[in-house]
Amino acid sequence: MNRPIDMIIEGGRVVTGGAVSEATILISGETIVGVVAPGTLVVGSENAERLDASRKIVIPGVIDAHVHLDSYSGHADSFASLSTAAAFGGVTTMIPYIQGKVGMPVKEFLGNMREEGEAQSLIDFAMHCRLNAPERGGHAPFDDAFDAGVTSFKVFMAYRKRGIMWDDYNLFEALEYIGQRGGVFCCHAENGDVIDYLEDKFAAQGRYTPENFADVRPPEAEAEATFRVLTIAKLARCPLYLVHMSTGEAIALAHQARLTGQQVWTETCPQYVTLTNEEMTRQGGLAKIAPPLRERCELESIWRAAADGSVNTVGSDHAAWPWNNKSLPNEKFPEIVFGMPGVETMLPLMFSEGVAKNRIDLPKLVELLCEAPARIFGLAPKKGVIAVGADADLVLIDPEREWRIEGKDMHSLAGYTAHEGWTIRGKPATTVLRGRVMVQEGRLMQTAGFGRYLPRSIRG
Ligand SMILES: [Zn+2]
């Protein structure tokens, strides 16, 4: 070995590639240059910084492929606050959904937000392109995104009333082109017209309230749209990534399609496996998300799907809105925006509720949060694994630490959390990004702008 070793992480249980083993990680510059047996004599390590990982679990830095920040959208978090919250939560790479104002060219909003990210982000980031309603211009918006290193797209099958729903004609046309270019289509699958009708009906009866919210967006609306987009994506030969899946039925439909050879992946979120629709009565607008929180039986069926491989990834769907947008009185419940913060609590919740409660094992946790998102979104083999040649992005988890989740301690500008007061087990103690300690024992060690933009090439 001829490169000097700059950092050595020793004594920990290292989880990667489906295995857990005691190992020492050697880092030179930004890169992992060795994963060796404990006690191995390492030449050229005299000046290395040593991180003691004894009694800790070492996993690859988490990739949160589903976050939202203020890109002309009014979200509470900027690149700065979102990436800070992420770093404290063990997330070293994020992929926010970037959108523009109506009519703003793709090149402009992706360019602006890339600049903002490069100036502000603590952690590495890529971007998804979220398009508003279909516009004239044919393939130009897609081409501009590919040119900017953005290869994944989101449009909505819901929200006709907000003017951003894509009907099947437009969807098919877009998917055919994304597929041809080697991109990925990220889909929010809910039947928009069914939901719009139910919203109107419940509102007219004065029943569009927190208690009835789950019935306004029923599981069937998710299953139907999932089946439809699976069919369209199959015809269009477009790889499909289904975001924030909240029902066992829709996940099973996607898994069935995968078994027949279709390129499809499913993502769920910590909130769908930790909270039920009872939170609507308790928390009202704060817990208003779409798809909605479901019955307890769905929660357990998604855990089973995560364990058996029919769910592929976990993303936070972090969507923090200013408190006054989420805390309107109940009579204004229909106006409350969808979304909740979650980037900082994703890994802790999945560890505590998943691994510590034996619903998933450590290799599965790492597959869901690190390996699979890196592969699907073209960030592998640099990201998502602990291996020679990969970026030295790592999280040291203290598996025994018990702590309380409190909104006031979170680093998102939301200032609240739907998991307020939860006592959980396991905490990310140290986060390392490209060989530099980002967070250590609750202290931030890097400054804004350390994060790097990751342009993506087309999936092979
Ligand atoms: Zn989202």
3D architecture notes:
By secondary structure, the protein is of the alpha/beta class. The chain folds into 2 domains: 7-58 and 386-444, Urease, subunit C, domain 1 (Roll), CATH 2.30.40; 61-376, Metal-dependent hydrolases (TIM Barrel), CATH 3.20.20.140. Helices cover 32% and strands 22% of the residues. Strands 1, 2, 3, 4, 5, 15, 16, 17 and 18 form a 9-stranded mixed sheet that branches. It is globular, with a radius of gyration of 21 Å. It binds zinc ion.
Number of helices: 14
Number of domains: 2
Helix fraction by DSSP (H/I, runs of at least 4): 25-40%
Given as residue ranges, the uncertain stretches (5+ residues, pLDDT < 50) are none
The CATH class assignment of the largest domain is Alpha Beta
Largest β-sheet summary:
9 strands, mixed
Give the full name of the CATH homologous superfamily of the largest domain: Metal-dependent hydrolases
Provide mean pLDDT, rounded: 95
The name of the CATH architecture of the largest domain is Alpha-Beta Barrel
Q: Shape, please?
A: globular
Amount of beta strand: 15-25%
The small-molecule ligands in this entry are: zinc ion
Give the number of DSSP strands.
18
